[in-house]
Amino acid sequence: MDLLARLNEKIDGLLQKYEELTKENENLKLELDNIKEKLTKTESELLECRENIALKELELEEVVGKIEAILGK
Fold it and tell me: pTM of the prediction?
């Protein structure tokens, strides 16, 4: 095989590898965007859960206060 043919083969291989890496990079970007979206949703759900827990704790404190008032009488 002459030098020019080998060079063309190497260039073709590099171009193919570049295309593969470009596609992989795009897929990774999409995956990252999806993960960021999931994380945002999860953080929102976590915040809602924390708010619900805080409300339940307030309700529980009220109930305990009522029980203590009844027992204290």
Answer: 0.67
